[in-house]
Structures are given as structure tokens and as C-alpha cells.
Design a protein that fits this description.
The complex is a heterodimer of chains A (370) and B (589). With 370 residues, chain A is an alpha/beta fold. In chain A, 43% of the residues lie in helices and 15% in strands. In chain A, strands 5, 6, 7, 8, 9, 10 and 12 form a seven-stranded mixed beta sheet that branches. A five-stranded mixed beta sheet of chain A has the order 2-1-3-11-4, sandwiched between helices. In chain A, helix 2 packs across helix 12 and helix 3 packs antiparallel against helix 13. Chain B is mainly α. The radius of gyration of chain B is 25 Å and the shape is globular. The relative contact order of chain B is 0.14. The interface between A and B is large, with 76 and 70 residues.
């Protein structure tokens, strides 16, 4: 009897706990603040005193940038930086459970942002200076590209390549990666790591460059036994010389290392994949006015300039300054063509969606099983 | 104190004590059908919440189409089918099991040899050598992995780069990103567990048994193999299964090393939760798959522990074991200990210090420009102070709560027994069987709708649940060595159960509990497997900050935080050493 009683207690407790966890989503419906700046926004934001920014950009850069806001308004910014996919998973779960922890949500994955709008997780808000930012990289009334764009690159270590090899990589980095002389010297950012990385590979295999490269070129790159890692790990590997060439690194990630004197440079494939971080006010944000004030500040030329300095990326704000030193270096040249519309390209989205087989094909070609 | 095997030690049934509630209770005790006490009921409920809740939630999550609570979520068998009914994860499963068993076997072999050398030979500087074995516990294994990647990456690791120019060669001398490399790093950081378990058992062996063997003319090797080994065999088995289960749950080390030969299951769980496109139900289903294997490990671990306790002897004659005279051989033995200290402590910390002083990834000593820029950068980061506070808060409260609960669990298991006691005994061991990242997933899903979500209090709840097995094991060992007549005298004198625990049991097991406290202080300071998924923007401890830095590629900042974390742990252990007189050595642990 006793054992049955104990088991009974356990079963009841388990059922209660499972019920707790499984109960229907309590998604936050609608927002809890004004859609434009009220006249007393600064005062109300200051009375809240703090805000939490969720972002997937580099932690140090986010903190430097947010410090500008704190300096101006005295409002403390808590930054939580984790990888985009994990961050969205966390954000979605918190919103679905009506447990918002963040006030401003900023990620580079457009699909995550669109889903957030669709589910009512982002509040409707239009900052006054929104028109200074390109309209096609955000969604009017919801999220804006406060943190510039980043472009996919191929990064190489100048100490590990001969001058002839550097020229070869600069001329056509994809063709260079096929060359057997680079066997064991290449690193690759897997397409699963982000939507941008997936778009980069996709345009070579199935997209605009299919005729030039296609899966055949990928097989040749795979034969060179690339190291598969995340882009932050690849930057460390190519900087230290562990690998000589890294495929699929954003320029914003490589630039700080170059700025500190690391022996690396990058080249843009043609076309390259361009994406922007979209930032918006979180519905039911714990600090709704501080969040709105942050959006107001984030769209100013001053904030655009500060982000460009912190991240070494090209400012998107029409009135911001671009003071990046390497713009004048001989090795650097701007991307010739960019592919930005992958975020709405149905064929690409279907291939990389949950029902698509793109990742399976890529994994099979490269022998990747992670 | 008695000499030789006690009645408990022989595995004899506990003598029924005269109880205020009369003969019926005694009879019930003999038949194992006692009424559950209030204490045991309370403990059972707490454990159900702390341990069973998250585990049940993970199983529940495996049968969903999305993470529990997400929009459009529904019952689905897809994840379970993908994990259990396909061959997709078989290589991971096979690799994980093989890796765990190999690491466990090697840890036990080296740990047992080290324990025997320190307990049974006249090797010099015993205290220092033992410290060298225990110190690696102070380093998060993933921080150790970061250090070893900097040291021994095949192309640009410090060892390879600098040996190449020193020896005018282009060879690769070491490669940490291979299967042996992964095994090597795990071995460095899991061997101390095996050492502690085996060493504790060796110290409890009645030296008279070995003495008798020597008197009968058997030599050192024959005595060690024919007498000592059989007596400590259960502890060896316990250490083997304990390390195997721990190694099954590891994900941070292979992730840091960029290991690609196979992907351990725990790493697959982590990636299912975090890498685009994330699939939490598959992560949960993988977690349940790991659970069955670790549960088997736990079964054997518990069996071995139970057998080991049959051999526990607490002697009072002060008999010391005969120490084997090593002669000239003591120097190679000491060199072996020195080599371990070099590989597990000195080289990794040296690498961390160098990395923390460089502006970017430079491994060639000739090109290094050192500065304090990374320290300034970390010191001026607003999160660091808050993370430091969080770590300290967890470092104080997690071990305290875990030890109190561990004592209560041990009291119910050792003194009250019965079926509820048995249930509590099993339940309290379960957390060892759950990889941290899986347990954390269950906690997140369970608590995401409560005010505790993303708070430091939730981290405390999770870590207390995870560390209950450790705390209760220490308390159980301590309680088993106390003659229960002391407690019964207290009860007969009219004291209630809680007063007896507070005034009789607690003071007597205090040394064991303090040892547990200090070990759990170290563990909770360096913990990352659970906390990485649980910490919110305001509740991140230092170890999670270091992990986030590693994930973001900021290895230099991670090195700085790793060093700070070690200093905090060291300060805590020194305070315990001098203020509470608790030593972190195998006689206490």
C-alpha cells in the first residue's frame, strides 16, 4: 500500500508539473505603450531608470554602444548577448509565457523578427528619425536597422598565404577554396549557423551563382577538408593561423581584429550577402518608455556614428559619419553587388525552412554531421 | 569508537531502537513498512519538485511539436521517432558511450594508482602532491579546454608554433582536436573525482588485512592485487560509473575544442536547443535517450557504493598502514605527479595568463605584445560586477541549502529507512544521471511561467537539485559512522527529532558537511552546464559570462574571467581552511 501511495504522490505531482509546463501559450497580445513618442517620454523613461537589451551582435560592441545611451540619459542598459537562434528561442519562450525580460529585441535574423511581429511580441512604435534609415532593411512601425549592415566575407591570414595566394583569394575566393593546395587550411561557417551563412552557400549552389559554382564546386571545397566552426571561432582560428582561409565571416566580426593589428584581411564574394540587425520595442516590455527612448536614440545620427565606431561597420543612417580607417587601405574594396532579398526569397526560404532539404544536402556534400 | 567492521559495515540489518511509539513501530521498522515520518514526507515533496519535476518536463517536451508553451504547440511523436526510430543519432550514441567508458576506465586506473601511491608509499611531500591532484577541480573543464586549445591546436597552438621555430621543423607535435586529445582533456579534469573516491576508500581499509598479507610473505604487488584491490573494488566500480555518467553529460569541452570526429549526445542536445533552426523537442528526446544510459550507470554506481559501504571500517586502535619503501623509485613517482600538475594546472593557467594579456590570438612567443587591455576591458564591463555578485550569492547559498537538504535526505535514508526512504534514496541520486543541459531545459520549461524565471533564485533551485546527490553522499557517509544509540539517547531523553538532528547528529557529522560545503562551493562557482540556459540578463554568474565570451569568440575576455573565477574560488577555499578549519583533501572528501 505504502509503495502505491508514494507512487501515487509522484504521479500526481508529475501530472501537475507537466500540466504547468504544457498549459497553452499565453502569448503577449498587443503592446502596452504608445506607437509614437509622447512629449514626456524622457521623463517617463528616466523614472524607469533601466532597460534590458537582447542582442546577437558582439557583446563588447553592444555594451560600448549602449553606454552612449546611458551617458546621455543616465538610464542603465543591461545587455544580454547570445547567439541569434538561441536568443530567439529564449525570447519566444518568454513572450509565449508572458514573461518578458527584455525591453528592446535586436537580432540579425529577419525571419525571427517577422515571426515576432506576427505573434504580437514586438510593439508598434515609430521613432521620429526612422526615415533616416533604409526602409527595405526593417519593417515600418515595428523594427528598424539601428545597427547597420554586415556583409559575408572570406577572411584570410596574410602571414599564412603567399602574395600569389592572396591575389588568388582576392580574385575569386570560392574558386580559390576549391584549389587542392589549400587542403587542410580552410575553415567554413556552416549554413545552419545563421540565415545569412545559409544564404551565402545557397547563392553559390542553387542561387544566382549556380552556373558558375554549383554543388560541384562545393564537392571540391569539401575535398579540401575544411574545419567546421562558428564564425567567432573561425575568426580566432584564422587570426592565430590555425587555418589560412575562413569562409562565411561577417565583415563586422573581422574588422575589430584587423583594427588591433591582427594579420588578417578579407574579401567580398560577388555578390555578397548583406543583412541588417533589426531592433524593436518588446511588447509588454518591463520598461516600455525606456525602450521607446532607446529606439528614439538609436535612430539618431549620433547613435549611428557611435555604432559604426564600435562595430567598424558602414553606417546606415543617412546623417551618420563613417570614420573606419581601413576604407583607405589598398587591400580593401567595397562589395560590388549585394544580395539582400534572401529574407523574402520564397525559394530560398522554402529550401532552408523546416520542410526544406538544403541543410541535409549541404551536410551530405561536406560530410558534416553536427 | 569500535574497531573493525561495525554492524552497519557488515551490511547487517539495523538494530531496531526502542521508540516512544511502541512495539508496533518496531515491528513495522523490521518489516520495512513504517509509517513515513513528517520529515520524510516533506523531503519527498521537495525532491519531487527539485528533481522529478524537471525530468518529467523533459519527457513531456519530447512529445511536443515545439517547446512546451509555444504557440501552435501540439502533441507530436516526431521528435521521439527521429531520435529513437532512426539511425541518425546512432554514431553519436556509440561515440558518447565509448568516450564515457574509456574516460572512466582511464580516470579510475590513474586515480587509483595515485591514491595508492599517496596512501601506501613513503613518497615525499604527500600534502603537496595531493593538492596537485585536487587543484584541477578549481578550473571549469571548459576553461581548461579553452586553455588547451590555445596550447595544442595543431597548426597555431602555442606548443606547436614555438617548438617549430625552436627546433627548425614544420612538424605538428601535439593535436588536441582529435579523439585522444578530447580524451586527454576530459581525463585531466575527471581523474580527481576517481582519485577522491578511491582514496577515501583506501583510507578506510583496515591496515591489519594488508599487514597479515605481508606477515604471510606476500610482496608489495601481491598484497596490493590480492588484498587491497579486492577490498576497494566496489569503490573503484563506484568511481568508474560516477565518472562515466559525468562524461556522458559533457558538452562544453567538445564544443570548445571544435571536436568533429563525432558529436557527443549532450552536445547534440545543446545544439538542438541553440543552433539555427533550433528543435527543442528533439533536444528533449535526445535528453531522454541519454537518461536511459546514465540511469543504468547510476544503478551500477549505487550498487557499487552499497557494496563499498559493507567494507567501511572505522578503526580506533590507531593502526597505520605499512608504507612501502620506494627507494629511488620515489623520484619517478613524484615526477609523474609533477607531470600531472604541469598538464592539468601549470600549463593551462600559464596559457590563460598569456591569452589574457594579448590583444588578439597570438601564439608565437616572438610576436607577442603583452598588455592589460583585456583586464581593463573586462573590469569596465557593467556585467562583471553583477556577475561577481551572482557568483558569490550562489557560492554561499547553493552549498548551504544543498548540505542542509543533503543531511535531511541522509537522515531519512540511513536512520528511518522504509520504502519512502528508499524512494528518496533513488530520487536523490537521479540528478547525476541527467546531463546538466537537459536538466536545465526541464527547469526552464517548468518555471518559465513563474516569477522565479531568469532569477538567481532559479539558478539556486537548479543547482541545489543537481548537487543533492553529492551533499547527501557526504552526509550519509558521516551519519553511518555515528553510533545511532547517541541519537536514541537524545530521543529517550525527550528531545524531538529535529532537536536531535540539530544537537546530536549535526555536530557529529559537521566535518563531513563542511567538506561537502566547500566542494559544492567550488562546483557552484564554476558551474556552466546548467546555468548557461537558466541565467537571465540580471542573474548571470561569472562562469556563464566566461562561456558567453567563448561563444562570442572573445577568448581573451573569457581567459580574464576564468582567472578571476579561480581567484574567487581560491579565496573561498582559503577562508574555509583558516576560518572553519576545513581542508580540501581526500580525508575529508
Amino acid at each position: 500500500m505504502r509503495i502505491h501511495r508514494t507512487t501515487g504522490i509522484a504521479v500526481v505531482a508529475a501530472a501537475v508539473l507537466a500540466g504547468l509546463a504544457g498549459c497553452g501559450s499565453g502569448g503577449s497580445s498587443g503592446d502596452s505603450g504608445p506607437a509614437t513618442a509622447p512629449s514626456d517620454l524622457v521623463a517617463k523613461a528616466k523614472s524607469e531608470g533601466q532597460l534590458t537589451l537582447y542582442g546577437d551582435a558582439d557583446q563588447a560592441k553592444l555594451q560600448k554602444w549602449a553606454a552612449g545611451f546611458t551617458q546621455k540619459y543616465g538610464i542603465k542598459v543591461q545587455v544580454l548577448r547570445i547567439g541569434g537562434s538561441e536568443l530567439f528561442q529564449r525570447f519566444a519562450q518568454e513572450q509565449a509565457a508572458n514573461q518578458p525580460q527584455s525591453d528592446v529585441f535586436s537580432v540579425t535574423d529577419y525571419a525571427s523578427l517577422q515571426k515576432s511581429v506576427q505573434e504580437g511580441w514586438l510593439a508598434k512604435y515609430t521613432p521620429k528619425d526612422a526615415n533616416l534609415l533604409p526602409a527595405d532593411l526593417g519593417r515600418a512601425g515595428y523594427f528598424y536597422p539601428l545597427q547597420n549592415t554586415s556583409n559575408q566575407t572570406i577572411v584570410y591570414n596574410t602571414d599564412k598565404l603567399t602574395p600569389a595566394e592572396v591575389k588568388q583569394v582576392q580574385a575569386d575566393p570560392v574558386a580559390a577554396a576549391e584549389d587542392p593546395k589549400f587542403k587542410g587550411r580552410i575553415g567554413a561557417n556552416i549554413p545552419e549557423s545563421s540565415q545569412q551563412a545559409a544564404a551565402l552557400w545557397y547563392q553559390w549552389t542553387d542561387g544566382s551563382q549556380k552556373a558558375k559554382y554549383g554543388w560541384g564546386a562545393m564537392s571540391k571545397i569539401a575535398a579540401n577538408k575544411p574545419v567546421f566552426a562558428s564564425s567567432p571561432d573561425l575568426i580566432n582560428d584564422v587570426t592565430s593561423g590555425e587555418i589560412s582561409i575562413a569562409i562565411g565571416i561577417t565583415d563586422g566580426l573581422a574588422a575589430p581584429a584587423v583594427d588591433k593589428g591582427a594579420p588578417i584581411r578579407w574579401t567580398y564574394p560577388n555578390p555578397t550577402v548583406t543583412s541588417a540587425f533589426g531592433a524593436g520595442v518588446v511588447a509588454n516590455a518591463p520598461h516600455p518608455y525606456a525602450a521607446r527612448l532607446f529606439m528614439e536614440w538609436g535612430t539618431t545620427p549620433e547613435a549611428g556614428t557611435l555604432w559604426s565606431k564600435a562595430s567598424l561597420t558602414k553606417p546606415l543612417n543617412k546623417k551618420s559619419d563613417d570614420s573606419r580607417k581601413f576604407l583607405h587601405d589598398s587591400w580593401f574594396s567595397e562589395p560590388k553587388q549585394t544580395w539582400k532579398t534572401f529574407i523574402t526569397d520564397k525559394t530560398f526560404l522554402d529550401a532552408t525552412g523546416t520542410k526544406g532539404d538544403y541543410y541535409d544536402r549541404w551536410d551530405k556534400t561536406f560530410g558534416y554531421s553536427g | 569508537m569500535s574497531t573493525g567492521l561495525s554492524s552497519h559495515a557488515r551490511g547487517a540489518p539495523a538494530e531496531s531502537a526502542p521508540r516512544p511509539d511502541g512495539r508496533g513501530a518496531r515491528r513495522a521498522e523490521r518489516t520495512g513498512r513504517r509509517r513515513p515520518s513528517t520529515l520524510s514526507a516533506v523531503i519527498l515533496i521537495i525532491l519531487l519538485g527539485l528533481i522529478a519535476g524537471p525530468i518529467v518536463t523533459v519527457f513531456f517536451g519530447a512529445f511536443q511539436s515545439e517547446a512546451p508553451g509555444m504557440p501552435d504547440n501540439a502533441f507530436s511523436l516526431d521528435a521521439v521517432k527521429e531520435v529513437y526510430a532512426s539511425t541518425e543519432y546512432l554514431p553519436s550514441l556509440a561515440g558518447t558511450l565509448a568516450m564515457s567508458l574509456v574516460i572512466a576506465a582511464l580516470s579510475v586506473v590513474f586515480g587509483a594508482i595515485a591514491a595508492w601511491a599517496l596512501a601506501r608509499t613513503d613518497v615525499r611531500w604527500r600534502g603537496l602532491l595531493e593538492l596537485g591532484i585536487i587543484v584541477p577541480l578549481f578550473m571549469s573543464p571548459f576553461v581548461g579546454a579553452v586553455a588547451w586549445k590555445m596550447l595544442a591546436a595543431p597548426t597555431a597552438g602555442m606548443i606547436n608554433v614555438n617548438l617549430r621555430w625552436m627546433l627548425h621543423s614544420d612538424s605538428t607535435y601535439v593535436n588536441i582536436t582529435t579523439v585522444p586529445g578530447l580524451a586527454f582533456v576530459l581525463l585531466l579534469y575527471y581523474m580527481p573525482y576517481a582519485y577522491l573516491l578511491v582514496s577515501g576508500a583506501l583510507k578506510n581499509v583496515d591496515p591489519a588485512l594488508e599487514e597479515a598479507s605481508y606477515m604471510n610473505g606476500r610482496g608489495v604487488v601481491a598484497t596490493a592485487l590480492k588484498v587491497t584491490l579486492p577490498v576497494v573494488r566496489p569503490s573503484l566500480a563506484a568511481a568508474f560509473f560516477f565518472v562515466a555518467v559525468l562524461a556522458t553529460g559533457v558538452f562544453a569541452v567538445p564544443q570548445v575544442l571544435g571536436f568533429t570526429t563525432f558529436y557527443p549526445l549532450a552536445l547534440q542536445v545543446y545544439r538542438s536547443m541553440t543552433v539555427f533552426p533550433s528543435d527543442p523537442p528533439v533536444g528533449a528526446a535526445l535528453g531522454t535517450l541519454v537518461f536511459w544510459f546514465t540511469l543504468a550507470g547510476i544503478y551500477f554506481y549505487r550498487r557499487a557504493i552499497r557494496n563499498g559501504q559493507r567494507y567501511v571500517t572505522v578503526g580506533a586502535r590507531g593502526t597505520r598502514p605499512r608504507l612501502v619503501r620506494l627507494g629511488w623509485k620515489k623520484w619517478p613517482v613524484m615526477a609523474a605527479f609533477g607531470l600531472y600538475g604541469l598538464l592539468a594546472t601549470i600549463l593551462p593557467y600559464a596559457a590563460l595568463v598569456l591569452v589574457s594579456l594579448t590583444p588578439y590570438s597570438i601564439t608565437d612567443f616572438r610576436k607577442m605584445s603583452l598588455g592589460l587591455g583585456n583586464f581593463v576591458s573586462v573590469a569596465t564591463t557593467p556585467d562583471v560586477v553583477k556577475s561577481f555578485e551572482n557568483s558569490l550569492w550562489l557560492g554561499i547559498f547553493v552549498p548551504t541549502v544543498a548540505v542542509v537538504l543533503g543531511l535531511a535526505v541522509a537522515y531519512v535514508v540511513v536512520r528511518e529507512k522504509g520504502r519512502v526512504g528508499a524512494a528518496i534514496d533513488y530520487l536523490s541520486t537521479f540528478p547525476i544521471a541527467i546531463p546538466g543541459v537537459v536538466f536545465a531545459t526541464g527547469i526552464v520549461w517548468l518555471y518559465v511561467r513563474t516569477p522565479l524565471y531568469a532569477t538567481t533564485a532559479l539558478l539556486l533551485i537548479a543547482l541545489v537539485g543537481v548537487y543533492i546527490p553529492h551533499a547527501s553522499r557526504f552526509a550519509t557517509t558521516g551519519l553511518m559512522q555515528i553510533d545511532r544509540s547517541l541519537e536514541e539517547a537524545g530521543r529517550m531523553s525527550g528531545a524531538g527529532k529535529f532537536r536531535v538532528i540539530r544537537t546530536v547528529s549535526f555536530p557529529l557529522v559537521r566535518p563531513s558537511l563542511l567538506s561537502a560545503w566547500i566542494l559544492l562551493f567550488v562546483f557552484s562557482m564554476r558551474e556552466v552546464n546548467e546555468t548557461v540556459l537558466l541565467a537571465g540578463p540580471n542573474s548571470r554568474p561569472l562562469a556563464v559570462l566566461a562561456w558567453d565570451d567563448v561563444q562570442a569568440g572573445s577568448l581573451r575576455e573569457a581567459a580574464v574571467v576564468g582567472l578571476v573565477l579561480t581567484l574567487v574560488m581560491l579565496a573561498g577555499v582559503l577562508i574555509a581552511r583558516f576560518a572553519l578549519r576545513v581542508r580540501l583533501d581526500s580525508s575529508n572528501l
